[in-house]
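Issue: ligand-bound run for C2E - logging full I/O for the record.

Environment: standard queue, default settings, no custom constraints.

Inputs:
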Amino acid sequence: MAVQTEAAIRGVDAYRLAKRALEQMEQNKIWPTPLNYELWLHALSDPQGDIGRELHRLIAAGENLTDAMAEDIALQFLPRLRLTEEIRDAGDQLTRQLEAIGAAIQVAQSSTNEYGRTLEGASRELASASEQTSLRQVVEKLTVSTRRVQKENSALEARLSQSTDEVKRLRDHLEQVRRDAMTDALTNLANRKAFDEALAREVEVAAATGRPLSVALLDIDHFKRFNDTWGHQTGDQVIRYVATLIGRSSVHPRLAARYGGEEFAMMFPGEDARSMSAALDALRDEIASRSLKRRSTAEDLGIVTVSAGVATLHPGESPSAALERADKALYESKRNGRNKTTNAETSLAA
Ligand code: C2E
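Outputs:
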């Protein structure tokens, strides 16, 4: 949580802030879901922060904050904060483990040194020992020291094995946090950040190998109408429906992501826009092949269609420029009646 928000929700005005958040949410007809409330607290305690500015922009534009939009804002601005905290926690735990290992090694080292000194003393004593009793005393001393070193070594072993387990647990946890930060919570597809990072890498590969690379953007047609007519919960299910088919599709993108509210992005290394247009048409047909039902009332929602735009990366072109052309092609599909795929390479003026 941002420092300002953390301070505000534990400060003297905490309850007043909470009441104001709920009042404003009610005034703006925003559902009091935990996520919306969290976003609103951020907006009130830090109006100039990313979340504050984004929420005020949406409200000023007369937008209805849907669950999908809230998820988007949270994905964009909250995970980074959560991630930082989780990484800081894991870092602290790791430091503690390393300190404990260091201390255990030091104990073992000093007891090994002491054992060395005992052995040296024993060998001197043995050299000069003549009587049986003094021999016995030397052996007894050696036995006691050997036992002590053995005990300390087993304690060190146990400590090291415990720390190894703990470090493995921390590594798995960090891996999970990293995956969550790259995944869209509503659809389980990759999120925009993951897509942008992967695309930047693929653009480098394409530049180095000369292999083609194409990118596509898909947008659910008349999504706002779905949301306004059936409510945001149904809207979210429509997004999930499309995401499921993109995930299952025989069009094999290297990566598919939820790119914005009802927008998806796909990348196809090794493919050009022409071959991908045909594959995207097949995906569009699949999406439009089922009539959906509203889960709560079983009312007919009708069919869902999507519009798509696809572009092949030009030599030396940046990822964002290729995406921009795919977006223009998508807009062209919308302009030409929706439920279409437009190939930027053949349909857009240069
Ligand atoms: P979900 O609601 O989480 O459902 C996951 C899967 O459970 C569905 O995968 C389907 O195999 C099964 N399922 C859940 N509810 C029903 C049901 O009432 N009838 C039937 N026959 N199967 C059900 P699927 O079909 O691939 O859908 C993936 C997601 O797409 C769903 O997630 C939901 O969010 C959305 N979706 C798909 N079809 C519809 C629909 O007709 N209406 C609505 N509102 N959403 C749908």
